[in-house]
Amino acid sequence: MDQDHLFGDSPAGAQAPTDSSELVQRLAQLREQLQHHAHLYYTLDAPQIPDAEYDRLFKQLQALEEAHPELRTADSPTQRVLGKVLDGFAAVRHAMPMLSIRTETDTEASGALAFDARVRRELGLSETDPAIEYAAELKFDGLAINLRYEHGVLACAATRGDGEVGEDVTQNIRTIGQIPLRLHGAEPVVLEVRGEVYMRRDDFESLNERQRERGDKTFVNPRNAAAGAVRQLDPAIAAQRPLSFFAYGLGEVRGWDVPATHSALLDALQRMGLPVCAERTVAQGAEGPTGLVAFHRAMGARRDQLPFDIDGVVYKVNSRELQQRLGFVTREPRWAVAHKYPAQEQLTQVESIDIQVGRTGKLTPVARLKRVFVGGVTVTNATLHNLFEMRRKRVRVGDTVIVRRAGDVIPEVVGVVPVEGSAARTPYVPNFHMPRQCPVCASAVVREPGEVNHRCTGGLFCAAQRKQALLHFAQRRAVEVEGLGEKLVDQLVDGALVRTLPELYKLGVAKLAALDRMADKSAQNIVAALEKSKHTTLPRFLYGLGIRHVGEATAKDLARHFGQIDRIMDATEEQLLAVNDVGPIVAKSIRTFFDQPHNREVVEQLRSVGITWVEHEPVQVAQSSLPQAGKTFVLTGTLPSLSREEAKAMIEAAGGKVVGSVSKKTHYVVAGDEAGSKLDKARELGVSVIDEDELRALLHAEPRSDHGGA
Ligand code: IVH
């Protein structure tokens, strides 16, 4: 990062430059820095400065531009989110029509073979001629956008429309952080970049989750969500919809030498700061290890792991010269084709609707479906989320519905196909009702005012909640009890062997081995796994307790802030609110949880069966960047609140090493009560002696109250 030599640290740039050329220079420098860091952050996902530093530079630029509006430029990062609410979008005539490509609908290898054969025929090649080189890339499932850069600055962004005339969506597209407002290192007179605006699946899921929580309409799939955001008339709303972009081609170009191949073109666009998908290759012909068929197969296998939806792959003749020779048929290039994959959405029928009871007692309606193959798996169930969501989608038993399954995401009913002839306005008469009693334990079902979810009030009395609580505690991200899966938990709970978490630890080999299909060896493994799980970390333990609204991240924040479970159990809502990212709902939920005597009892019993935890996960990676990397520590005596294990784990988490004896090379001796000869030795050798508080300060750990350790 360049020095702020002109203005020092003042966010508003208090000492305004005297000379206007100096000011112009400073503005340009700030814009360039911000653009550079936005690219690292949004496109490369590799920020180099903290967010706060970015904000500081941003505010500096904003203040200078406010003082000198005449020096504001269209490519300034401050100009991303400043649009007005529109009545409609202006029409934009494309300088070059936006074409579509022919689609090979057969999802087998033959689609690639047919395309290659056609291209060879059109070019008059014989079998003995060498393979054609293709650029193979993904077919993103979003919407096509034309970005028009004039002299390197984003001037207009338009939708495809009918291919001739699209809509001007510039102010919404500007809010996409990945799209550069100014091209890096190039200022061609005109460069139109074409590509796909899309929404990542995780962004889509969390957007829908937010919509659902607010009782707002959810989106059917990422493509619809992206299309809705791009055509949103209020740019403030568009800015909150998390969109992404991949460049894949060109429109009008003036004053720029277009590279000779498509793959080189994509490389060049990438260098200009445009996001280009890394999943692409240059293929030789259709068959063989580097051919189109191999790419189609490889991407098909990776499809679920990609962070976004694709509906196929695209093959393009790589050489521009050959592309020109091939030309177009009607409105489609002869040199490109889309080769599809099986759909991630299918139609099927709802056979019945069941209720599932979750860990927190939430009742989830689940559609039992006529078996359907979608997104690579056979689906027989799909979540309907809650009663309101179900009503909004107008789902009824017997209806034909659209089921979506993409990535590893749980299959979902996204909508109903209206019965032929019946208008959408037909009154919706639901034929499913939420039960008044929990289908598992018969406790009362309630829905709190303002909540969309129905809940069973049975708590841990409810077998369904108990099972989920055990599974949650035992999962890998929590306390991790290897081998404690659904089938075993069903048997343990249904057979009344385990009612509470601590009872898990009282199971012996004999009881376990007596279960259905449980060999002695497996029983021993479970007991060993339970033993192993007793050494855990505070965040994992906290997360494993299954407190509502306390996810992994919150558990880590709580552990870091309080250091000790007793302090969390006794914290007031106000004290909890002081924790990073803990708001009133979370604080209340934690307080409510620990106000229940049986929850405190569970913690006590877990302690008494021998569970211990350290504050942090031992950190192994990036040792050298840690505060105590390479430092050696010796522990002696009894520390006021840390056990030896805890202190050791904390030191190691900070990159330090704990050794047994003091030498000249020892960096610190941590001394507690009744420290013995090691302390004397440290004094003799002049090694720094510190106490627990100083150790914590050194490791940047929060102090804890002085009563006993966990
Ligand atoms: S090339 C002249 N490449 O698929 C060629 N299109 O009909 C123009 N699409 O709506 C298109 N991924 O938005 C191309 N890697 C890709 C693509 C892609 C998705 C979309 C495009 C258009 C349709 C093609």
Explain the overall architecture:
The chain has 710 residues and is of the alpha+beta class. The chain folds into six domains: 3-79, Helix Hairpins (Orthogonal Bundle), CATH 1.10.287; 133-340, 2-Layer Sandwich (D-amino Acid Aminotransferase, Chain A, domain 1), CATH 3.30.470.30; 345-424, OB fold (Dihydrolipoamide Acetyltransferase, E2P); 475-533, DNA polymerase, domain 1 (Orthogonal Bundle), CATH 1.10.150; 538-621, 5' to 3' exonuclease, C-terminal subdomain (DNA polymerase, domain 1, Orthogonal Bundle); 626-699, Rossmann fold (3-Layer(aba) Sandwich), CATH 3.40.50. It is 34% helix and 20% strand. The strands form seven sheets. Strands 14, 15, 16, 17, 18, 19 and 20 form a seven-stranded antiparallel sheet that branches. It has a five-stranded mixed sheet with strand order 2-13-10-3-9. Helix 24 links the parallel strand 25 (668-671) and strand 26 (688-690). The longest helix has 24 residues, at 20-43. 2-(butylsulfanyl)adenosine (IVH) binds at residues 99-101, 137-140, 144, 196, 248-249, 314, 333, 336, 338. Residues 99-101, 137-140, 144, 196, 248-249, 314, 333, 336, 338 line the site of 2-(butylsulfanyl)adenosine (IVH).
Examine the coordinates and then state which fold CATH places here, giving the name of the CATH topology of the largest domain.
Answer: D-amino Acid Aminotransferase, Chain A, domain 1
Distance from N terminus to C terminus (CA atoms, Å) equals 44 Å
Structure ligands: 2-(butylsulfanyl)adenosine
- The residue-averaged pLDDT reads 88
Strand percent estimate? 15-25%
Determine Rg (CA atoms, Å): 31 Å
